[in-house]
Amino acid sequence: MTRRTGPETLRRAASPARLLTLAVLPALLPALFLSVLTVPGARAAESAPTVILSKKEAGKGGEITVSGKGWRGEALLMLLICGQATPERGVIGGTNSCANGTGRAVTTDEKGAFSKKLPVAEPPEPCPCVVHVATVTGEQASADAAFTGAGHPTAELPRRTGGGKLAVLAATRLEGDSSLLTWFGAPPARRLVFTVGNLGPAPVEDPVFEIGTAHGVYAPQWEERQWRGTVAPGARARIALPVELSAGAHGDYQISLRYGKKVLAEQPWGVGRPWGVTLFWVLLCLVVPAAVFRIGMAVVDRIRPRTGGAHRTAGARPGPAVSKGLPRRTTPVARTARSAAAADADATTAVLPWFTPDSAPSENRPRPTTKGQA
pTM higher than 0.90 for the full model? Predict the structure, then answer.
């Protein structure tokens, strides 16, 4: 008898497995649903950086311990006490409102935790104050913890200006010239001038811009610059912010302007080479060897042995002429002077050697006789 296979046989074989799946699936659905809802939230809560203070209030000169967790592993953090700030609104005036001179840096461990002692100092702005923690490199992250500086003045926070929106209305430009010191390696400095307009319904007070300088393929390095003033809704304002490079900088640079998280403008800047530094090193390479050579020659001339006939004694007169080939004899100064005086005296009194008193011609001597005369 032949056994037939067909749809009915397959359905009969699969029916026990289907029944088991249908029985287990309702029990698994609630667990899957809860895991989907709770796991992302738990992970988000664990990944959010936090800051914990050992003291909520302390006076100037004291010290607090700042700790935290949930940060990126082995990340470099900056710890600052800032005024005119709250954890909800953040640091309104940027790092210009912080006590930057007493700030500290710390590196998180592999799990993203840290602990660091921070000296208490008075920020330049009044409280409410916070302890501001932010990453220095890599992905940007920050967190604030409320702090009260004992004895530090307190003032109300400026009203929100979230309705304001700034936009650059004209092309940016760099103003200023280089000085003579820049030719010798001083930091080049300019002013980034631009015109902004407020496109929002609310005024913008004391906006904080960021100036970025990039060289070659490197990412820009951002520095905060605050402009003092108010831009009313629909109004415009001309703003000039200082830009300064490092000492000895030269080449092609890219200057960027950022407000909030939006880059408003970019401006190229070609910086000439400081040829004064090159000239200094060239002169140094020429003068130093020449000076060393002169000093060395003077030392050699001083320590080399002196021979008797190498130099004449100072003040000595040249001696009488001698025959060629005979050795020359040096005469002391005193003896030479006496010899010269004696020679002058003898020259005046000496008589000719062939005339003597007996043989000198005389008029009284009789003349010889002629031949044949007696």
Answer: no
